[in-house]
Specification:
Blueprint: E1 9-19, E2 25-35, H1 39-43, H2 51-55, E3 56-60, H3 74-83, H4 85-100
């Protein structure tokens, strides 16, 4: 029997490309920590609820700094990652891929 914990969390790699002030691409990787939220709970969320607020529990290997130049940690790091358009797009892409990539039927 194949047994699956429906309350699982997992780590998944995230690739990120951003652009510096001169338009040069900067690419890196970090790890996202996701939790599985049952589909019925996701469907019942109020309109406007962000998916990352429900499924992202942390990031590793990503250094972000605040306006004061200090490295962000904990909830501040998580908020800043979800609030940055490039990072949040990369996180959403990684989450969607992590759910669907291996579960696609082969033709």
């Amino acid at each position: 029997m194949f047994t699956v914990n429906v309350n699982r969390s997992y780590q998944y790699p995230v690739s990120l490309t951003i652009y510096d002030d001169e338009g040069k691409e900067i690419t890196g990787k970090f790890t996202a920590l996701f939790k599985v939220v049952p589909q019925d709970q996701l469907n019942a969320l109020p309109e406007g609820t962000l998916l990352l607020d429900q499924v992202l529990t942390g990031v590793k290997g990503l250094g972000l700094t605040g306006e004061d130049g200090k490295t962000l940690e904990g909830d501040e790091l998580l908020h800043a990652a979800k609030n940055d358009p490039a990072i949040s797009t990369a996180l959403l892409g990684a989450f969607n891929t992590s759910i669907s990539k291996k579960n696609r039927p082969r033709i």
